[in-house]
Amino acid sequence: MSEKMSAERAAEILDLERAERFTSMEPVTEACRMGRDALLLRIPRSPYKNGFSCPNCGSSDYLYGYFDKPNKCCGNCGQAILWED
User: Fold this and answer.
1) Residue 84 and residue 82: Cα distance in Å, rounded?
2) What confidence tens digit (pLDDT) does each residue in 38-78 have?
3) DSSP for 23-65?
């Protein structure tokens, strides 16, 4: 697809109740790719693998919140953070 698919449209395509018919697999493939990317953000990953930064976006500025409390997710990209390492 030439332009980015909206999250709402991807959800519609992946809705099994709608059973929309497609002449091309391209929208289904793009919706699946978007869903996979969103699911990967939910899997906690360690910020300590490459120094100290978000393993997804590389930022270290958004890993802590108020009073230096560690965030459960990166405040920049939403990657779940695994602090146990």
Assistant:
1) 6
2) 999 999 999 998 789 999 999 999 999 989 899 999 999 99
3) S-SHHHHHHHHHHHHHHHHHS-B-TTTTSSS-TTT--STTSB-
pLDDT of residue 44: 95
> What is the end-to-end Cα distance of the chain in Å, rounded?
39
Are 62 and 81 in contact, with CB atoms under 8 Å apart?
no
Of 6, 74, 3, 2, nearest to 40 (Cα)?
A: 74
- Give the separation between CA 62 and CA 44, rounded to whole angstroms: 15
Residue 33, strand partner residues: none
